[in-house]
Amino acid sequence: MRKELVGLAAVSALVLGLLVGCSRGAKNQKTDSDPNTIKIWVQFSDETAEGKAWKEIVSGFNKEHRGEYKAVTEYIPRSGSGGGYEDKVNAAITADNLPDVITLDGPNTAAYAHAKVIIPLDKYVKDANMDDVLDSIKQQGTYKGKLYAFGYSESSVGVYYNKKMFKEAGIDLSKLPTIDKPWTWSEFNSISKKLKKHFKRPAIDFKLNSIDEMMPYAYMPLIWSNGGTVVNSEGTKAEGYFNSKKTVEAVEFIQNLVKKGYTTISPVEKGFETGVYPMLLSGSWTINDMAANYKNVDYGILPYPVSDKTKKLVSPTGSWQIAVTSKSDKPKIAAEFVKYATNTKSSKIISLANSVLPIRKSTIEDVKDEVPKEMAFLMEQNQKSGHARPVVVAYPQVSRAFQQAMQDISYYKENPDVKKALDIKAKEMQQAIDDALD
Question: Of 88, 174, 274, 313, which sits with the fewest C-beta atoms within 10 Å of its C-beta?
Answer without folding.
Answer: 174
